[in-house]
Amino acid sequence: MHALSLVCTLNASPAPSSSLLLSDQVSAELDKLGVTTETVRVADHDVRPGIETDMGEGDAWPLLRDKVLQADILVIATPIWLGHPSSICQRVLERLNADSSQTDAQGRPLLYGKVGAVAVVGNEDGAHKVSADVFQGLNDVGFSLAPGAVTYWVGEAQQGTDYQDLDETPEAVADTTHTLAVNTVHLAKLLKEHPYPTG
């Protein structure tokens, strides 16, 4: 099993990122379950706006798309900005949309059989709304979602603490991250052994 995490922080490397930290914690739980993991910080790449698989010379999405197609599990990690997923997260969903009409050799939508999961961080409440937005986008393009397919942390309203500034991971977040990993891997294995029917 292989998992790809697309981290949708607005900050390119090497700037610190709470989204990257939570993504790394998800990857650590997946590693314990025997899943190989890869993390890509999308802001480090020139992903063009659009809904095509390739937006022309210099577009980095075709390379990232290949990684998505090779993965059994896709984790999208995003901060909350103005109550919404980051603009980079939205761009990733828009680029994934290009594959919603593609099919595999058996005529199934190309992304069927792949499992999605979400990690959300922010300083205001809104993790449920943001995960719902990303869940719907992933499901629309063909990803399946396990129960508990999101882990998140939000700080107290109108405060400035970041997830990466905490002295330790809150137990509730660690438990939720573990559940996300276990359920997501379970579903991915089931779908690998028993693909969706062709019609």
From TrEMBL:
Residues 7-148 form the NADPH-dependent FMN reductase-like domain. Pfam families: FMN_red. One of its GO terms (molecular function) is oxidoreductase activity. Transmembrane segments: none annotated. SUPFAM superfamilies: Flavoproteins. This is BramP. It comes from Streptomyces formicae. InterPro entries: Flavoprotein-like_sf (IPR029039), FMN_Rdtase-like_dom (IPR005025). The lineage of its organism: Bacteria, Bacillati, Actinomycetota, Actinomycetes, Kitasatosporales.
